[in-house]
Here is the input.
Amino acid sequence: MVAEHAVRNGVIIKEADATLSVTNREVQFGFSTYESIRVIKGRPVHLADHLRRLDKSCEGIFLSHSFTNEELTNWVHALIQVDSLVEASVRILVVGGKDPQCFITAAPLISYPDSYYREGVVTFTYEGERLMPSCKTGNLLLNYMALEAARRQGGFEALLVNREGEILEGTRSNFFAFREGKLYTAPSEKVLLGVTRDRVVQAALKNGIEVVYESPLAKDVRSGLYDELFISATSMAAMPIYSVDGKSFAGPFTRTLAICHQVREWELED
Amino acid sequence: MVAEHAVRNGVIIKEADATLSVTNREVQFGFSTYESIRVIKGRPVHLADHLRRLDKSCEGIFLSHSFTNEELTNWVHALIQVDSLVEASVRILVVGGKDPQCFITAAPLISYPDSYYREGVVTFTYEGERLMPSCKTGNLLLNYMALEAARRQGGFEALLVNREGEILEGTRSNFFAFREGKLYTAPSEKVLLGVTRDRVVQAALKNGIEVVYESPLAKDVRSGLYDELFISATSMAAMPIYSVDGKSFAGPFTRTLAICHQVREWELED
Here is the structure.
């Protein structure tokens, strides 16, 4: 286990004690928000960005609490220190209600085999729309079911398709596709405002690539209208897609890997 | 507190120990199902129906577990016995994953003032569609937010309206409306298959009332096309609606109260 401890409302506790009562109504209803943050070389990467998004998630679902971002920052650092975390994935969870609770826990840093980046990953589409896509909340059953469905077919990620047939995002990633040299991704109001998504856009612009905020249609992706696809997430940076619903895309994924490299560089400069 | 104990995977524990780890992925994703059952005179009302629906909810989201309905029945009775419960609301929660967990807890029986039945309750519509409406799962943020929005306006319940403008159901109730002597409610595939909803339909038929499975449009309700409205739930039986978005409906709610009376009678005969 990476962490022996956790933080509850600012107090260091044993991780085993980081629990919620099953009789808590807010737990039952998933009235909660969260963020996952990479710790690299003992530093929480882009923490301020994650806390800003946590604020937005709380505002979006009217979850009031009195935890300040300064406190949350201190608590993340306290957990890093008490468990001497060098590389880890830290999760901040805020549960709402009359007596809001904040938990900070740590898990091993997620990293993927090099082959995923060289060869790309297998994906499958899944029809479904998230409630309040710009908020990270405990309302995640669609994401869970979509990912399970993709895994049953041997996939690594599921891509969520809305009623208009557009691919908006993955279950734990944002989605990007190249077409005639331009980079397409869903408009910001329709998807999670990924901290890494912002970095991907910046990296693309830095490389002289135009970014178009239009959601690719699943049928156009399957018919080969796009020539290089990838997903982005805190844990993945930018990861090439090998196939969507069996339609495969040949590597080398040069442009994706250039963006991936840039995103990882920025993590260390933060 | 009504209950000092709870049951976890068949074992009687202190209620305070009925907790879930915040690091449990299935807890984080709301990959769970539940049922709430009224205990009256020490007997769990319509328990077999509730367990049948729990099965359907688990099947619907592909949640596998090995708890049999015989076991669940025994565990509910064990909790009733150990805490000498006479009147209570018992909740069965099943959390999925590699190591599924089942919790049975009890809370005070919910009952409402007589005035709610005499005068009806204030409701407000809320636009939003539930994921897999026929399953009772931990994916309840829409219900939570809709109910909070109604409460902020002084309402007792929120009525969920889909993209077609139809009122499908309440956040914790089914919805019914009379028009020219016929009783209208949403088609079964669009809503939660309420255990009490079934009883309401039976009671209506017993009273010679035709039941039409068509969802009333919110605009038709607001314009007065329907003349008596009510919501139904395990905790409410059938409760008249005084107003929807400020459009009020005059009592006495004779037909609703006749149905309510019949539903409560059947609870004792179970």
